[in-house]
Structure prediction request, 266 residues.
Amino acid sequence: MDREPDLHPIEASALHARRERVFLVLAGLFLGSMTLLNVLGVTRFIDLSFEVAGVEIPFLLAIGVLPYPITFLCTDFISEFYGRARASAVVWVGLGLNLWVVLILWLGGVLPPVPEFDPATGLPATTDYQFAFYRVRQLALGAVLASMVAYLAAQMCDVFLFHFWKKLTRGRHLWLRNNGSTMVSQAVDSIAVISITHFYAAGIPVDAAQPVWPQLWVFIASSYVFKFSIAALDTLPFYAGVKFLSRYLEIDPLAAPDGGSPQQTG
Prediction:
């Protein structure tokens, strides 16, 4: 079959090019969100506490959590149309990208000119132009272990459970694999990232005079409720996206329930 003249030699057909470009968008959105998460991390906490029947319910969110739910939606789309192997590959690339961000942050802090640091805080004076960079660097490097462990555990859990539910239901009940995989994996992520960030990096703003775990559970629960709510809300967009992409990419998601090669629907 003759190739179309505007295609790159690596693209076998217009359909192949379309599939690869959609994969690029999904993978790019996933990786970009992960990078943003790692840089913002715990640099700021948003207080969304509210009252119910006169009782104040604490609700504290790290700003880095905001872009995180979209990463699970992206891996669910990739799992659905491109298979488990590609979804896992994107997760591993994300891990490497996070390490690259850490390397740049470390390198940016050791190259001259290096400012004078306050021994008490390990940071330049707040009036120093470089203070903002070193504060972000301190928090990002301090929480990197938590980020890496939580990220890898949660994303691999998401990919595994997505395909487990897909195989168990023989491709039916799309809502189950979308929500079931995401909600469990986000619980893993919330517990891991908050506990490791506190005990390893001391990056969670807790009151040392109060018991630690009740305070940590507020951060864990707040993070999880936010992710749980977004996961529930993304069910309809996921259904709509699967319906649209099935036609647009000419892929039957049920043709390869274990993550094999996509097959044309027509």
